[in-house]
Amino acid sequence: MTAYDEIAQLEGDNECRAWLTKVIATRKDIAAFVSSRRPGSAEGEFDRFMNGSFNFCVCIRFNDDGPKSIIRFPKPGHTLTARREEKVRSEVRVLEYLREMTNLPLPNVTSWGLEDESPQNLGPFIIMDFVDGTSLSTLLKQPVQSEEEDVILSSDIEDAKLDCVYEQLAEFLLELSQLEFDSIGGITKNADRNEWLTTEKPFTYNMNEMAVTVMNYPLGTFPTAPFPTTRHYLEYQSDENITHLRIQRNLAHDREDARKKYIARHQFRKLIPKYCMDNNGPFKLFCEDLQPSNMLADPETLKVNAILDWEFTHAMPAQFTYDPPWWLILKGPDMWLDRYSMKEFLHRYEPRLEQFLRALERVEARS
């Protein structure tokens, strides 16, 4: 199991906790602010808080019986504070692009802004309509006795029920696979040409994790521009992996563990020339955090009403899009192998992969 940098985590948690205290104390101001960003003169009132891994949401209800609103802030300490505005800007662009180019079920963004526009300078924000539904992972998971237990696909789930879900997810992935760019990074729209381009440096899920969970990680090593080829990006990823091993002193448990991690990282770099396909693109829009836990569905019909959390979405190597989804049994192989064997993982994963591929074939046949 990968060791955590407890000092970095404590610092991040303390920063986030202080910020959350301010948010909670400011909830009336937040409600008034959200109301001011909404058409009409309805008054807003605090409804509830919703906490995620990287974002904190405040739900606001109104006295005109209209839809509730969610204002979502990236959490400092859990999101690299210096990149919060960049993260929000990037997600808003991605949502605009997806609404323009796809039929994916997306939250309706009604307003957004940067820190200096926010109430009490709480940070950059996105305001969107509240979407009814239950997390898809909650509807599919094995029943648990406590929240500490693993989230794993129910072993006795009906095939028909899972087919219904897999076909929807296959449709989503198929749509995303058709979106192409000529370099790797964040997307922006050229309004003069009405064209979407890759013009921004990527800020990936893993970069954020390095920044907030590894003490003294050298942020200056993060990319400053898009990557022109797959090889350039994978070589950067290799450097990031090696830097992580060098910087986080407790990443290895002992000398032998350090040796294995060192060899694995350098072997990965050697494999890049051999397995680097479609080096010059086209590159596909890829969301690193696309998974059932970030989808809201109707608990009766299992119809997905909204796909959330597009913050770590970039044009990426096409192989990322074409890889089998890691979330087919809800828990990915990296987390699974911390507690279970590869044999156990494959025993659960392979039948579901075959079922998903059949669902994908049915969707492709209808397209």
From TrEMBL:
One of its GO terms (molecular function) is kinase activity. InterPro entries: AGP_Transferase, Aminoglycoside_PTrfase, Kinase-like_dom_sf. Residues 69-318 form the Aminoglycoside phosphotransferase domain. Pfam families: APH. It comes from the Eukaryota. The keyword Cell inner membrane does not apply. Keywords: Kinase, Transferase. This is Protein kinase-like (PK-like).
